[in-house]
Amino acid sequence: MSLGAEKRVLSGMRPTGSLHLGHYHGVLKNWVQLQHEFECFFFVADWHALTTSYEETSIIPTAAFDIVVDWLSVGVNPGEATIFIQSRVPEHAELHLLLSMITPISWLERVPSYKDQQEKLREKDLSTYGFLGYPLLQAADILIYRAGSVPVGEDQVAHIELSREVARRFNFLYGREPGFEEKAEAAAHKMGKRNAKLYFEIRKRYQEEGDPEALQRGRAFLEAQQNISIGDRERLFGYLEGGGKVILPEPRALLTPASKMPGLDGEKMSKSYNNTIGLREAPDSVRTKLRTMPTDPARVRRNDPGDPEKCPVWQLHQIYSGVDVKQWVQEGCRTAGIGCLECKQPVIDAVLKEQEPFRERSQEFLADPDSVRAIIDEGCEKARDVARDTLEDVRQAMGLQYR
Ligand code: TRP
Ligand code: SF4
After folding, report:
1. Average pLDDT for consecutive 10-residue bins of the chain (403 residues)?
2. Which residue among 65, 146, 343, 366 has the highest number of C-beta atoms inside a 10 angstrom radius?
3. Is residue 118 domain-shared with residue 201, that is, in the same domain?
4. Based on the domain organization, do 68 and 96 belong to the same domain?
């Protein structure tokens, strides 16, 4: 078992259509960064797509392939991150089922997205078992990798919270392995004499005086230990808190700041607003979209002065332009010194430049789809190895070991 699972990062996306620059600035740039710092698992949540698109499944495989090409194109690197498809790691489903046995229905019913989405997607019948279980399947996705951090947007925080509650309940119910105390004490001694002594002191302070600072300190202390196995670390966490072994560690949400990427109309870039620029959209189409995007309505004629604050192009300058260009816009717009097309040109250039490597890489991958399949195959295998390990521990903890 590898060390440092709490440093493991996991995130997923549903394959619901091609990605745009909003995804890049909101999520993917962050993934690319994280892969250098952590052991990352990124996956296509195709089962989650089924919860709302169960009537129209034929697009899912293509969408899954395309989304992986999008990830690879922006620089998610299969040498650094494990890329895989949820349904090809069926262990997620087994863990989901096992967790369903201990998850009260009320926990799922009170997840805010449950009723919200049902109301938003009125035209679909979402009174299904699978839809109710959406966040629990997500919990299984996370817990099966014992991921410490889950980069998600604000809308997913409640799902991570549910994952934490389910993990806690699981550990409470099944974390008492035989000989737990002895094993925990032995694990403490494996850290060396001084560390063990410190650990016992901190534990005593927490358990006898209920000092929450001691708990914090104890956790930080254990996280910083380099040379203990995951199993031992989890025992020591559990022993510190007075519970049993932590079989499924509680994940944290790593909040991705809301994307500030504006769309072509100045609203947030989103497929449902029809204001997007595709990640690897053809240059001509990008040019046309930007040239025809609206500007300050006060600038009817070239000689009418405008106000950048009332113009969606200005918002794009905020993302793409440096101080000098921004100043040029502010002045030129307010004095009618520049025309709108002129003003848009630096944005057009910057967007095209940003997309250039995306387009190049995607062309390479699309010319060799087998290479993409090989990346996915390898990722699925790697993910399965980890998932199998966790399930092994889960089955054992639950007393479902028949061999
Ligand atoms: N529900 C997530 C979304 O819609 C996708 C997802 C599924 C996910 N399983 C996950 C995200 C596990 C993070 C971790 O965006
Ligand atoms: Fe918008 Fe630029 Fe035209 Fe001003 S000059 S209205 S900022 S596009």
Report:
1. 64 94 95 96 98 92 97 98 98 98 96 90 91 97 97 94 96 84 93 95 90 91 88 89 86 86 94 94 98 96 96 96 98 97 98 98 97 98 97 94 79
2. 146
3. no
4. yes
- Ligand 2 contact, 247 CB (< 6 A): no
Residues 82 and 138 in one domain: yes
Residue owning tokens 């534990």: 203
Ligand 1 centre from 369 Cα, in Å?
A: 25
Report the domain count for the chain.
3
Summarised one tens digit per residue, pLDDT across range 2-61 is 334 558 999 999 998 889 999 999 999 999 999 999 999 999 999 999 999 998 999 999
The rounded Å distance from CA 32 to ligand 1 centre is 17
**Neighbouring C-alpha atoms within 13 Å toward the C-beta of 293:** 26
Q: Rounded to the nearest whole angstrom, what is the distance from the C-alpha of residue 55 to the centroid of ligand 1?
A: 21
For the record, the structure tokens of 4 come out as 């440092």
- Residues 21, 104, single domain; the answer is yes
Q: Which of 329, 341, 347 should be mutated for ligand 2, with most atoms under 8 A from CB?
A: 329
Looking from the CA of residue 343, the nearest atom of ligand 2 is: 2
Please report the atom of ligand 2 found closest to the CA of residue 339. Answer: 5
CATH number at residue 304: 1.10.240.10
Nearest to 16 by CA among 69, 68, 60, 47: 60
Chain centroid to Cα 152, Å, comes to: 4
Nearest of 277, 247, 213 to residue 95 by alpha carbon:
247
Nearest ligand to the C-alpha atom of residue 292: 2
Q: 272 in a domain, yes or no?
A: no
Instruction: Give the CATH number for residue 93.
Output: 3.40.50.620
Q: Which of 372, 384, 382, 401 is nearest to 68 (CA)?
A: 372
User: For 169-211, how does the pLDDT look when each residue is reduced to its tens digit (9 = 90+)?
Assistant: 999 899 877 788 899 999 999 999 999 999 999 999 988 888 8
Ligand 2 near 340 CB (within 6 A)? yes
Q: Are 223 and 163 found together in one domain?
A: no
**66 and 214 share one domain:** no
Bridge-partner residues for 252, per DSSP? 149
Q: Which of 343, 344, 345 to mutate for ligand 2's pocket (most ligand atoms within 8 Å of CB)?
A: 343
Domain that holds residue 305: 280-366
251 in a domain, yes or no?
no
Instruction: Answer yes or no: is 78 within a domain.
Output: yes
**Residues 158, 100 share a domain:** yes
Q: By three-state DSSP, how is residue 35 classified? A: helix
Q: Give ligand 1 pocket residues (Cβ under 6 A).
A: 10-14, 45, 48, 138, 141-142, 150, 152, 156
Measured in angstroms, how far is the CA atom of residue 265 from the centroid of ligand 2? 13
Residue nearest to atom 8 of ligand 2 (CA): 340
- Residue 196 placed within a domain: yes
